[in-house]
């Protein structure tokens, strides 16, 4: 089959590497892809948000199956347009993708159907939001309603910080129209867990849990990023908690979306907080998370493409979905200065014995040299029989890579190890 993957980051590279293992996949096209993805797929110069260009390429090149990976094209309705041309897709349609596209929708959905989440209020007028902040509990979380490239969530430690966040979103429009409406919600505490799931709207199968590391610097310090590394499985996510999440969060969410006439098909991501009052949802994503995908898919024993076909056909209940008992660790190498300003164009040398590398932000120049072109540049993932072994192997591979302008956190997985050791 001829397969098209929309997107051009580390998540898409991980998906492409995994579906390449399937005997049913003959050709893979990445739109737009990147310099690293070009090693595993044919990159096409069509942007992930160029929906007419995506549809035109798919129809003119007789694409058999499309995987739409990023949030923006999903929320914009890319799947709807492709399906209208008779092209089966993995990914939710526009009506279902709103679960990530509007935080207000997601919060109201959870409230309506009794799915545990933080208490919240929604505001469309800045004056009302600022008045609310004068008396609410601090710290508080301020969220832009729409998509904001992962940057639309502010944890405000003071009322002044909360007010500034509201003004920047609603008055200064730092996130464009995404900040025209804001959600202000209760600050939750506890270990965070990410759980990706396959669902066709009738069946939901959770994947291996993972732990993300959002802060840029060791010790969970520095600015929030798109993710500096992940480990899987997450030791805080016990079998008992997993059962509770399936009963109280995962299946109720799938059922709620069906009742709203927005049946979800694709990868539904649950961002959870394990509070003293039990697990609660802090966010939904309508697609594979990044870098969680780079640590979860390497643990998948089954044929990912076969699973995606089942999801698209509505026959997920018949799919073989199995994961190894191993652990995995992913360490992200980023450009110095990220997530603020950074320089590009630095050469990257990856030795041939380091094979589990997912390229997020790099290009190839005329002589074939791989050069940095983004903030998060690449992710290095290794497996092990246990978490300690996976972490050690990953950092051993990281040390072999030459990227002069690169940096990474040196403590990815340490919190998970502490949890395992009871510290």
Strands, count: 25
Strand content: 25-35%
What coarse outline follows from CA principal-axis ratios?
globular
Most strands sheet: 6 strands, antiparallel
Helix-and-strand structural type: alpha+beta
Radius of gyration from the CA trace?
21 Å
N- to C-terminal distance? 50 Å
User: Helical amount among residues, as a percent range?
Assistant: 25-40%
Uncertain ranges = none
Number of helices: 13
Q: Estimate the mean pLDDT confidence.
A: 96
Q: What brief labels describe this structure?
A:
423 residues; alpha+beta; six-stranded antiparallel sheet; five-stranded parallel sheet; 13 helices; 25 strands; 30% helix; globular
Architecture overview:
There is one protein chain. The protein has 423 residues and is α+β, with helices and mostly antiparallel strands. It has 13 helices and 25 strands. Strands 12, 15, 18, 20, 23 and 25 form a six-stranded antiparallel β-sheet that branches. It has a five-stranded parallel β-sheet with strand order 3-2-1-4-5, sandwiched between helices. The protein has a four-stranded antiparallel β-sheet with strand order 6-9-7-8, sandwiched between helices. It is globular, with a radius of gyration of 21 Å. The relative contact order is 0.13. The mean pLDDT is 96.
In terms of topology, how is this protein built?
Layout: E1 2-7, H1 10-19, E2 27-32, E3 42-43, H2 51-60, E4 65-68, H3 71-76, H4 78-84, E5 89-90, H5 94-101, H6 103-113, E6 120-123, H7 126-133, E7 140-144, E8 153-156, H8 159-170, E9 182-186, E10 192-199, E11 204-206, E12 211-212, E13 215-217, E14 221-224, E15 229-232, H9 239-259, E16 266-275, E17 278-285, H10 292-296, H11 304-313, E18 327-335, E19 348-349, E20 357-359, E21 362-364, E22 370-372, E23 376-384, H12 387-398, E24 402-403, E25 406-407, H13 414-420
Parallel strand pairs: 1-2, 1-4, 2-3, 4-5
Antiparallel strand pairs: 6-9, 7-8, 7-9, 10-11, 10-16, 12-15, 13-14, 15-18, 16-17, 18-23, 18-25, 19-24, 20-23, 21-22
């Amino acid at each position: 089959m001829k397969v098209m993957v929309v997107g051009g980051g580390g998540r898409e590279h991980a998906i492409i590497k995994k579906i390449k293992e399937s005997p049913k996949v003959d050709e893979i096209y990445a739109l737009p892809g990147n310099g690293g993805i070009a090693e595993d797929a044919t990159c096409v110069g069509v942007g992930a948000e160029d929906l007419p260009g995506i549809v035109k390429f798919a129809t003119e090149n007789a694409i058999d199956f499309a995987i739409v990976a990023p949030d923006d094209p999903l929320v914009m309705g890319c799947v709807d347009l492709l399906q209208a041309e008779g092209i089966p897709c993995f990914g939710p349609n526009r009506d279902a993708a709103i679960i990530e596209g509007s935080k207000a929708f997601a919060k109201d959905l959870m409230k309506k159907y009794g799915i545990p989440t933080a208490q919240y209020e929604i505001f469309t007028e800045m004056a009302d939001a600022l008045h609310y902040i004068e008396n609410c509990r601090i710290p508080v979380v301020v969220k832009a309603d729409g998509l904001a490239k992962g940057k639309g969530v502010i944890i405000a430690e003071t009322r002044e910080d909360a007010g500034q966040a509201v003004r920047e979103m609603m008055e200064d429009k730092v996130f464009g129209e995404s900040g025209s409406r804001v959600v202000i919600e209760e600050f939750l505490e506890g270990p965070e867990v990410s759980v990706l799931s396959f669902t066709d709207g009738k069946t939901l199968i959770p994947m291996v849990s993972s732990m993300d590391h959002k802060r840029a610097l060791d010790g969970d310090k520095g600015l929030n990023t798109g993710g500096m590394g992940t480990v899987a499985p997450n030791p805080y996510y016990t079998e008992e908690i997993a059962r509770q999440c399936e009963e109280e969060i995962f299946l109720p969410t799938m059922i709620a979306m069906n009742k709203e006439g927005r049946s979800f098909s694709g990868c539904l991501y649950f961002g959870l907080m394990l509070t003293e009052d039990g697990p609660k949802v802090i966010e939904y994503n309508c697609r594979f998370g990044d870098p969680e995908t780079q640590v979860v898919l390497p643990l998948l024993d089954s044929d990912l493409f076969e699973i995606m076909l089942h999801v698209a056909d509505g026959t997920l209940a018949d799919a073989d979905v199995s994961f190894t008992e191993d652990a995995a660790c992913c360490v992200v190498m980023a450009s110095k200065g990220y997530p603020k300003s950074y320089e590009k164009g630095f050469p990257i040398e990856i030795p041939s014995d380091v094979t589990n590398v997912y390229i997020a932000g790099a290009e190839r120049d005329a002589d074939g040299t791989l050069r940095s072109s983004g903030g998060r540049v690449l992710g290095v993932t290794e497996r092990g029989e246990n978490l300690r072994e996976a972490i050690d192997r990953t950092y051993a591979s990281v040390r072999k890579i030459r990227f002069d302008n690169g940096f990474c956190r040196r403590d990815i997985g340490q919190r998970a190890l502490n949890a395992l050791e009871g510290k």
